[in-house]
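Human: Can I borrow your eye for a moment on a structure tokenisation matter? Separate attempts, laid side by side, tell us more than any discussion would. Could you pick a protein and write out its sequence and tokenised fold? No explanation is needed for now; the record alone will do.

Assistant:
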Amino acid sequence: MILYTVVPTHLVVSSEYLAREEVPELVEVSLRGRKLLVEPTGPTSGRVARILSSDPADYLDPEIQPGQVVQFTSQHS
């Protein structure tokens, strides 16, 4: 197996590196008919982590780009 990474090898193979890395809680939400994976920052807001869409135009919308904070009304897990 070949592993291409900028992280030093001793950190990649150590369990300490994996243990200290926190995995954020992500929830799937629907925003204007588009499904997004969002890291909640409040009860009705969150930071976009990923766009779940097969429509290329959704990826060009600056309002739902990863990193943007969005407001939503319902959560779907």
Q: What stands out?
A: The first strand starts at residue 27 and ends at 31.
